[in-house]
């Protein structure tokens, strides 16, 4: 009888060890969950904020105020396939980040993300006083009660634009602007892409020449230019950022929806009139070529940079653009309505800062 009890006890103990090991393994897998693979699900708890409660939102992003009548696009939540995305807690965020500075650097898509984040934080602590100041290319949203600042630096290429005798030159191998504007921050979120390919000389192109390898040319393959410029940025990060004091993110490639073929729609279709996301987890038209370039450059860096890989989840949201409701003429299928898709980008950013291994220094 004694032997039977001993065997039974050993069997139970061994089973408990296996169970604990399995639970630990599951927890570890959850900790390293891929937040970027998943689908959009309808959730009546969304949106995360009412833009009328965010007095500083730019007119171009406030689609409801600009006359958009449908509201279903506001009611979707991003759901990762293999884990739960932590709920955004703005009050917890500002308390954890007390005394810290966050800088978004990039084009108007970066502005889109920054505006989303400031609205999410503001509505979470509505009784706290805030200041919003702009000087040159820098805008600063600050919460004095928490000594927290969320800043945005408008910089469409990251590398330098220099005015010379022959005209404005885009210097692919120069990034002096970073030395005086990107240092001293606890979190840096960089973005560049749209201006590399969506500009036309004489219309919206801010340069006359590109300088590559010491040679000035009128133009060159834009993907090659993007890769060279991004590589210069990566070298700046590797040479100037201390990962013990500053966490660096790269905001991934934000897609456009001007071609219905991408989602198996009519050739003439755009985001105009779209009211629902695509079902499923993949986009029929595939990923933009810039995605591979970003991953290649980031993968070759010596300092850690976290990619906020927003491309696929955003490709599924053909309904999320301002379209005719930007307050300007034209059909805008590049930027995003707020509230909307960029809120999910920031939910993921918050999750990484709050639970990621590298985020522990922020706690």
The total count of strands amounts to: 13
The poorly predicted ranges are 1-30, 357-363
The structural class is alpha/beta
Total number of helical segments? 9
Largest sheet: 7 strands, mixed
Whole-number average pLDDT? 90
Widest sheet: strand ordering: 4-5-6-3-9-12-13
Gross geometry: globular
> Radius of gyration over alpha carbons?
23 Å
Helix percentage: 25-40%
Strand content: 15-25%
Description:
- This protein has 363 residues and is α/β, with parallel strands linked by helices.
- It has nine helices and 13 strands.
- The chain has helices spanning 2-31, 90-96, 108-124, 177-181, 194-197, 222-240, 290-299, 311-315, 341-355, and strands at 38-42, 76-80, 101-106, 131-135, 138-143, 148-154, 160-164, 167-171, 187-190, 209-212, 215-217, 247-251, 305-308.
- It has a seven-stranded mixed sheet. A four-stranded mixed sheet has the order 7-8-10-11, covered by helices on one side. The chain has a two-stranded antiparallel ribbon with strand order 1-2.
- The chain is globular.
List the helices and strands and how they pair.
Layout: H1 2-31, E1 38-42, E2 76-80, H2 90-96, E3 101-106, H3 108-124, E4 131-135, E5 138-143, E6 148-154, E7 160-164, E8 167-171, H4 177-181, E9 187-190, H5 194-197, E10 209-212, E11 215-217, H6 222-240, E12 247-251, H7 290-299, E13 305-308, H8 311-315, H9 341-355
Helix pairs in contact: 2-3, 3-9, 6-7
